[in-house]
Amino acid sequence: MNAAMNKAVLITPSGKPFEREVLNGLLERGCSVALPVADAEEANGYMEGLSESNRSRFIPLIGASDDEAGIVETVGRAIRHMGGLDMLIHGAAIVDEDACYDADPAAFGRQTSAALRSRMLYSRAAAAHMARDKKGHIAFLLLADSLYYADYPSSPVLNHGTIAMMKTLAKELSPFRIAVNAVTCGCYADPEERTDRKALKQKLEIHALKPYLPQPQELVAASLDWLLHVPERLVSGQNMHIGAGMDTFI
């Protein structure tokens, strides 16, 4: 096992199809991974299909609550089980914000605020530990805003709040040598969706001609390779883009 990859990572829950891909990708790279889950049934669902070696490095945090005290306790449990914490990865939010807003605008506002608050509390709890060692990495996985117009479940409102949070945290945590970055993924082909690939590519040609549609695991693999190898003391406050289907920023 590559010692450089033997990192202790806490990931927060996200939506399909990325959550399991992130978990499997980290375990395959030799990391120990903790994930908050609701109950033993959900934990067993994640355990299924894992090799014995990977299963021994997966720590499901059963019964994690989402209030401030619960999040601090959950992060503490992760640190005790893994013997430390090198990285916190916030999973990509896969939410149809348009449908949520149309159904109940007030509920949409509350849900978005709650999601941002949860990300901030997890980040703050993780940073409190990382600051003692003056090293660590907090990362946010996002799906490109512009893919919303090709009917992908991207979350532009939550994304913008997350990017603002990422930049603020990067500045505040700089004295403690904690890197804070985002990785924004482009288009992909969801293996569970029976979508007309030709029609989907035509929608995406505003971003790239005849765009390549990777599987979710390809985007996750590229994201993790970057996150696990980036020189943390040199790169912080950045939004790394991986894949097609995104606007170009200079």
TrEMBL record:
Q: Name one GO molecular function term.
A: quinone binding
Checking InterPro entries in the record gives:
NAD(P)-bd_dom_sf, SDR_fam
- What biological processes does GO assign it? fatty acid biosynthetic process
Q: Tell me which Pfam families the record gives.
A: adh_short_C2 (PF13561)
Q: Which SUPFAM superfamilies match?
A: NAD(P)-binding Rossmann-fold domains
Q: Which UniProt keywords apply?
A: Oxidoreductase
Q: Which domain of life is it from?
A: Bacteria
Describe the family membership recorded for this protein in Swiss-Prot or TrEMBL.
Answer: Belongs to the short-chain dehydrogenases/reductases (SDR) family.
Entry protein name: SDR family oxidoreductase
